[in-house]
Amino acid sequence: MTPVPPVAPGPPGRLLAPVADRGNALHPGAWWLWALGLAVAASRTTNPLLLGLIVAVAGYVVAARRTDAPWARSYGAFVKLGLFVVALRIVFSVVLGSPIPGAHDVFTLPELPLPDWAQGIRVGGRVTAEQLVFALYDGLKLAALLICVGAANALANPARLLKSLPGALYEAGVAVVVAMTFAPNLVADVVRLRTARRLRGRPTGGVRAVLQIGLPVLEGALERSVAVAASMDARGYGRTARVPPGVRRTTNVLTLGGLLGVCAGSYGLLAAQGAGYGLPLLAAGLAAAVAGLRLGGRRTLRTRYRPDRFGPRSWLVAASGVTVAALMIHANGYAPAALHPGVVPLIAPELPLWPALSVLPGLLPALVAPVPPARAAVREEPSA
After folding, report:
1. Which candidate, 39, 312, 257, 304, places its Cα nearest to that of 163?
2. pTM
3. Which of 93, 199, 275, 290 is buried most, with the most CB atoms less than 10 Å from its CB?
4. Following DSSP, what letter does each residue of 204-236 receive, concatenated?
């Protein structure tokens, strides 16, 4: 009998994080739940150290689990947008003033006189260190929210996310998927036509060149639209089932009422004093919206090819974000001063121990989420 050669052990992290494929890929909704949990945590504090920790957690997970897909490159744009928001918030505070009193003058701008009906509004004047620090804290909070959303955009496949929409939202999801598919094609057509004109020695700038390039681009878009419409019609898109009027009215009431409850509950969670009513209202709104969407899905005759399922790893990723949000909301009850450092008097912020530890569960996706194939190959090179 021929002896069987021993199997070489894989990388030590493979037990927790296998190589991603179509069978074990994470549900895109899990990434969004994780990112929204981090965003809720960021909305509960103005401590720049905690906000920096939340951004660091999101950035580490993105760096560890981001693929090479085009949408995965959007994280850097969100980081730049966050920095722009911080700078813009400080500029507005300097130009328009701030209600925060301060004793440490930094500089003074010429103040613009305003009419009596504009009382309470100031343009120019004293600029204090306290108002600059307050604007910085507020801007960092908004930037952290944007970066968390950018992490979800970089990790979740948008086409798969829209494919997972319930049947009641099927038409809207297909429209968005078609738009997302056509936009890169339009850009590629413009680049191809400009390159062709440049090789022929023709100008690529100016109104005349834009008009000459725009016509072939529109013709190509029209041809693709006709081809997609024909393929969708051949597959039975748009055919609906008959639903009794009572079911339709119940669906509308549940869906609209549930979405209003979700909006009100989300506002309560993001507001400073709305945690008491925000969570129950959000849960009730989600339940009503889900019931309405399930009823509305009865009128849509559709099937899913290889549907995405919420597996154990998806539940772990989603639960890590929910845990971070719940722990940070709880921290507001026992350490409000640490989560919201004061600016009058001006003091240096400190990193509270337990709220900082509450953010660390957000690193769980970097351990349990499947590793993209390209990153797995790089990880295995040293052992080859």
Report:
1. 304
2. 0.72
3. 93
4. -SSHHHHHHHHHHHHHHHHHHHHHHHHHHHHTT
